[in-house]
Amino acid sequence: MATFKALQGDITRLPVDAIVNAANTSLLGGGGVDGAIHRAAGPELLQACRPLNGCKVGQAKATPGFRLPARYVIHTVGPVWYGGNRNEAELLAACYRACIALALQQLQGVQSIAFPCISTGAYGYPAQAAAQIAVEACREAAGDAPLEISFCCFSARDLALYEALLR
Questions:
Q1: Is the pTM of this model over 0.70?
Q2: Domain 3-166 fold
Q3: Where do the Macro domain residues begin and end (predicted)?
């Protein structure tokens, strides 16, 4: 059965099987968590991302973790917030579902996965709504799988949102 926890910290340092990268559609690096993951993984990550030919919003693709403690990086592209009228909630939920499906069905031996707060930085998704979607989508997607799911929050404010939802 899936287990859930929230923590505050640097996702690039977590000793989990897979971390999720809140990437842009090019998968070639960017700011925020995306830039941090690319820097920590080393230049090999960029080289592994090039032949993937990008990623669409709501989908996921995987690479090795290279210099990260995590064996895999699962790249997903969250939606930009436009006020909630452009299917943003469904697209955000699709990110979490796609990452878990990829981890369980295509990656060898993944038993733990850590997610950042997808779309809540530069993409402007409201943190409370995003956290609610993240927790619900992960619970649904993981089902009875023996998977440890961590929500790695950068800020104490985000951590408090996830802790309240996981009670």
A1: yes
A2: Leucine Aminopeptidase, subunit E; domain 1 (3.40.220)
A3: 1-167
